[in-house]
Specification:
Elements lengths: L10 H5 L32 E8 L2 E7 L22 E6 L5 E7 L21 E10 L2 E9 L5 E6 L32 E4 L5 E6 L10 H5 L4 E6 L6 E8 L4 E10 L2 E8 L14 E6 L7 E7 L14 E6 L2 E8 L1 H7 L7 E6 L30 E2 L2 E2 L1 E3 L2 E4 L10 E4 L6 E8 L7 E8 L3 E7 L6 E7 L4 E11 L6 E9 L8 E8 L10 E4 L4 E4 L2 E3 L10 E3 L7 E9 L3 E10 L4 E8 L2 E9 L8 E9 L2 E9 L6 E9 L4
Antiparallel strand pairs: 1-2, 2-3, 3-4, 4-20, 5-6, 6-7, 8-9, 9-10, 10-11, 12-13, 13-14, 14-15, 16-17, 17-18, 19-30, 21-24, 22-23, 24-29, 25-28, 25-30, 26-27, 26-29, 31-41, 32-35, 33-34, 35-40, 36-39, 36-41, 37-38, 37-40
Length: 649
């Protein structure tokens, strides 16, 4: 995790550190990820110690929360790692366009993360690792993290991006865990869920001997461990076993290839080394058993300083996506370019990884080019604005907009001349005819849509009005011309003065001039609603978001969506997703306090069989209040509501 041993136990420093708000701060005027290149993966904020999880055709990267620290005169300090108390998550299905899922406020000791810290016992969340396992027929996600160098914790969730909870209320692995004696640094977890569902946790690091280790201790630290996890992935079975990794320093990694288990780690920087264990590189060992014993085989990833301007510590994660193997790692490229010196601030990269016929790993060629885009982006589906290939000037932060994914973000810090861009959007031969964006502003501005490059062909521009504030979101739209085929798409922001212009939450193109293929905005029943005599549940599977709403057999029970946005007044399609085991139940539908109609919900056959019913409802421009209310003593379970234009009228 860290190159300098003396900074490992920073509990007191972390507890007193300054915690920034929802925005991820950085110097945002310099483009580091050059257009056409894939590394670094992001440059609008930092992110260290990447741990990869492949799930449903996407790779999710979990990152330590490097954040710039400043001197009183505004200059950049060397990274003290005091801000490593969150975990950043980004994901991609194509390795070029990365969606920012924000920060998980992991550490919560002494009110960290503004009192929102999930693990109330922890003061740090270093070098995360993630896994998914099907438990009782449902995918369950696990986020492991290091409490500085003092132990390993775990959070759980029902999706790869959360929301997360602390199932134990304490560390999973600590100094009192059997077999952990002798581990200098109890950090840098890696996790493997084997083919039979068994889970294994790898961690540890450091060199014994305090400040003056002997050459024997440097060569044979014996500080790496493997533990068998319980079926719940949140308990440990038996004692930890030692992995006798030569010249071990930190950064456990684990993957399985053709039935062989590969344990990998960062080789230390101290003492004298033989030729096959070069300092600061990623070495690896293999075994036919996940618990070992492992045999040293060689190395495959040189220190970042061999490829990029700055070296520093080496940290990696090997993963497979769509039958290709990759390695994620970090460098100090972003901070180097922005400030002329890395100063210990890291950013994530990915390059391909390959094997020889005998199973040995080939040397990785790390570079700025990274991975060529794996698949074209579909511009006719809702795209989160925080899905970015290249950018200038922007930041991201938590959003108050409804209808987005868990931990939804928005693009912020938008000024005149800034841009975001996505790679290889496929408009097809027919082409796009219209465009919509979800925005909020108190001053207004404009989004210009250019193809291929920042000053490329202009195919449309949409005005962003004053929506009444930066939390008052509205969908705006414009017509599009001459957008066919596959192109990089640049959204260039325009406005007056030096002030922040607006917030940008999501966008979508349409093949119809009126946005006819636009899928509308989905509002979860359990999020940002007012509930009367009804309650959020998650008992029955198949829902979206964090749950659904049960009316609890009350008459007059209701769900009220308080901000249903409408760009142009008129009749809209309102679609309810619901489940009802048997019978037929009616709900009264109100818009802005006026009863519009009674909606009949036929049975879906079971409480896990979800269907949709669509009704036409008049909405007015701006925010609308929509309420559904029981008329008898029963109602269906409501998962969500979607508001979309009605193009048939």
């Amino acid at each position: 995790m860290k190159k300098r041993r003396g900074i490992i136990l920073l509990g007191a420093l972390i507890l007193s550190s300054f915690i920034m708000g929802g925005t991820t701060y950085a110097d945002s005027n310099t483009v580091v990820k050059e257009v056409g290149r894939s590394n670094p993966l992001i440059d609008h904020h930092l992110g260290a110690d990447p741990a990869a999880l492949s799930f449903n055709g996407r790779v999710y990267l979990y990152l330590s929360s490097d954040q710039y620290e400043y001197n009183q005169n505004g200059s950049i300090k060397d990274n003290s790692f005091a801000n490593l108390n969150q975990v950043y998550i980004i994901s991609s299905s194509d390795m070029v366009n990365w969606t920012d899922h924000g920060a998980v406020p992991v550490a919560g000791a002494n009110g960290l993360n503004g009192g929102r810290g999930i693990a109330k016992w922890a003061w740090g969340s270093w070098a995360p690792a993630a896994a998914v396992k099907k438990i009782n027929g449902k995918d369950k996600f696990f986020l492991y993290f290091a409490n500085s160098g003092a132990g390993i914790g775990v959070l759980t969730a029902d999706s790869p991006t959360g929301p997360w909870k602390d199932p134990l209320g304490k560390a999973l692995v600590s100094g009192s865990t059997p077999g952990m004696s002798g581990v200098v640094w109890m950090f840098d977890p890696a996790v493997l869920v084997d083919d039979d569902g068994s889970g294994y946790l790898y961690c540890g690091g450091g060199i014994p001997g305090d400040k003056n280790p002997s050459q024997w201790q440097i060569a044979n630290p014996k500080t790496a461990r493997v533990l068998k996890l319980g079926n719940d992935m949140t308990s440990v079975q038996g004692a930890a076993k030692t992995i006798d990794a030569p010249y071990m320093f930190e950064d456990s990694g684990i993957h399985k290839y053709k039935g062989v288990y590969y344990y990998s780690y960062c080789i230390n920087f101290n003492g004298n080394h033989p030729w096959d264990t070069p300092k600061g590189e990623i070495g690896y060992m293999t075994s036919n058993n996940p618990m070992g014993p492992f045999s040293y085989k060689g190395h495959f990833l040189k220190n970042p300083g061999n490829f990029f301007p700055s070296g520093g510590n080496n940290h990696h994660s090997v993963f497979q996506l769509n039958n290709q193997w990759y390695v994620a790692y970090h460098t100090q490229v972003v901070s180097q370019v922005k400030y002329g010196s890395g100063k210990g601030y890291r950013s994530p990269h990915i390059n391909k990884l390959a094997y020889n016929g005998d199973g040995s790993i080939q040397e990785v060629k790390a570079d700025y080019n990274g991975i060529s885009q794996l698949a074209n982006l579909n511009p006719y589906e809702r795209v989160e604005a925080e899905t970015i290939a290249w950018n200038r000037g922007i930041l991201t932060e938590n959003t108050s907009a409804s209808g987005g994914p868990v931990s939804n973000q928005q693009v912020t810090n938008i000024h005149n001349g800034d841009f975001i861009a996505v790679g290889n959007a496929d408009f097809g031969s027919e082409g796009a005819k219209s465009f919509k964006a979800n925005v909020a502003s108190s001053v207004g501005g404009k989004i210009e849509i250019h193809l291929d490059k920042e000053n490329g062909r202009l195919v449309g521009a949409v005005d962003v009005p004053n929506t009444g504030g930066d939390r008052n979101f509205r969908e705006v739209q414009t017509t599009i011309s001459n957008a066919t085929g596959v192109h990089n798409v640049f959204f260039v922001f325009r406005g007056n003065g030096n002030q922040q212009l607006f917030q940008f939450e999501s966008w979508q193109f349409s093949k119809d001039e009126g946005g006819g293929s636009y899928q509308g905005t989905t509002y979860e029943a359990e999020r940002d609603t007012t509930l009367v005599n009804s309650a959020v549940e998650s008992l029955y599977t198949g829902y979206t978001g964090e749950g659904y709403v049960n009316f609890n057999a009350y008459s007059g029970a209701s769900i009220q969506w308080n901000k249903v946005l409408c760009t142009i007044s008129g009749t809209k399609n309102i679609t309810f997703r619901y489940a009802l085991e048997s019978g037929t139940r009616n709900l009264d539908l109100y818009v802005n306090g006026n009863k519009i109609k009674s909606v009949e919900f036929p049975a879906t056959g079971s409480w896990t069989n979800w269907r949709e019913i669509t009704v036409q409802v008049p909405l007015t421009e701006g925010d609308n209040v929509l309420r559904i209310e029981t008329t008898g003593e029963e109602g269906p379970n409501i998962d969500n509501m979607n508001a979309a234009p009605n193009f048939d009228l």
